[in-house]
Amino acid sequence: MNKLLTIEWLKLKSYRPFWILLTLYFLVLGLVCSSVMLYLEYIASKGVQFESIDPSVVPFYDFNDIWQNITYLATFFKIFLGFIVVMSITNEFDYKTIRQNIIDGLTKTEFISTKLLLILLLTVVNTLFLLLLGIILGWIYSPVQGLDVMFDQAGFLLAYFLDVLTFLVFALLVGMLIKRTGFAIVLLAFYSLFIEPIGVLILSNFYADYTFYNYFPIRAINNLITIPFGKYIFQEIQDYVAILDIIVVFVYLGLFTFLNYWILQRSDIK
Amino acid sequence: MHPVLAIKDLHKRYGKVQAVSGLSLEVQPGTVFGILGPNGSGKTTTLGIVLDVVKKDAGTYEWFGKSPSSESRKKIGAILETPVFYPYLSAVENLRVVARIKEVPFTRIEEVLLWVGLAERKMDAFKTFSLGMKQRLAIASALLSDPAVMILDEPTNGLDPQGIAEIRDLIIRIAQEGKTIIMASHLLDEVQKVCTHFAVLKKGKLIYSGGVREALSGTDMVEVASADMDRLQQIAAQFPFVQQVSRENGILKVRLLPEKSSLDLNQFLVEQGVVVSHLSQKTKSLEKQFLEILASSHE
Hints:
The complex is a heterodimer of chains A (about 270) and B (about 300).
Chain A: H1 2-12, H2 16-34, H3 36-45, H4 65-75, H5 78-94, H6 97-104, H7 108-141, H8 147-150, H9 155-178, H10 181-206, H11 217-223, H12 243-266
Chain B: E1 5-14, E2 17-27, E3 32-36, H1 43-50, E4 58-63, H2 70-74, E5 76-79, H3 91-102, H4 107-115, H5 131-143, E6 149-153, H6 161-176, E7 180-185, H7 188-194, E8 197-202, E9 205-211, H8 212-216, E10 221-226, H9 229-238, E11 242-248, E12 251-256, H10 262-271, E13 276-282, H11 286-296
Parallel strand pairs in B: 3-7, 3-8, 5-6, 6-7
Antiparallel strand pairs in B: 1-2, 1-4, 8-9, 10-12, 10-13, 11-12
Helix pairs in contact in B: 3-4, 4-5, 5-6
């Protein structure tokens, strides 16, 4: 495993687009996640009200609300990590280095494993980043402090981990299938931001009695962490991660992982 | 001793095209084995299959007498088609990736770069290299694991004359170290200069396999001309070591038995009182052999 991770590291170490995209991603994620309060205060000063509630009193960063709030917000940015993953696989096809790697003595399984390890590492770093951000922001803003409340709802971080991990393995699959960087990035963005969400919206209008569209991959992944903001205007929200949603996403994670291996195993590499 | 590579009854079809069809081949240790054939004859497909990047439809192949695995690939230095590296990485960084894959210490990188004459450019990005340098880096990469066998696919393709000479020189040096080399090429001159054995493929079928020296020896042709061509032909036909005599464009072409040369023929003619105005010995080229082999395989 160490060997495989080193191989991936050697490939990416001097690849500037990777580091630029990654830095930009964490910069934007950090900025957006930490400036919610400033934004709420700004719109409050403009006289905006949420159902007669002053936005500046919304306890966005309070323990233990903070974990569902920032993980929900952070999932919107995972598409950029998806682009990084797509690039790392389509480049290998573009340069034909995937073929040379295998000729040089890597097995096809090992090759996919290097990419999955990269994904795992990105997801771990990403989750730790959010954990750190949550602790700092909660420490600054939250009126309640202390270890017992701090990590009360931190399970959302695990859901976030699963969410991003599954999405990135899906991104890898798109890259494996399309092989061209530009096409793959456009398709990934289009499918996960427009085609599936709009499709689900339309289907839910026509088939309101059914829930099958909740099991579409992007929808299922996004269902893990539901939108938490309704509670600030006294609506019922789901403030937990449903077991069924976790099971569905795990099934997708397994399926995407298997398909990545399977496709490479049975195809000629040109 | 096991053959380095043994292919038995290999088949591969791409859609309607039968790329490889019932190919059987053996490469013995220490040989420089040329795989010849026109474009599209299945050379690269065959190499792709034995390197496990192209799926075979049927047949078997063995490396060093064992069924193929990633372990056997680590002991092979191979380049398919063009040199393939990460364009943004330097020569050293690229070779580090290969060294990790082949489980070779990084110290080996300096050695191979020195060997192919790229030590001075080792920190430059691959994309800044000329084609000749790329090809040399590919050879350096193939040498990393000090492999028993090297596979080269059209190694001098697209190079300028100086580049061709450099690569050819490298290949000969590698062969002198006792490594087995398998080389696909459509440049016959190249195979003739470098290889000890060769095989000819046509439409995915093996139509010839043998030694280069054997293919080239014993078929020398001598061209003679004289003032009186009829008499010359008559006398020449009486020379006991003649295989065949034919006349073309005022020149008599005489094919002699293997151990005889133009010297023997001339001596005979002089003894018979014939004075020649032209005498030259044609060494048979692999190119002619190759074309004959292709022509004689009616398909």
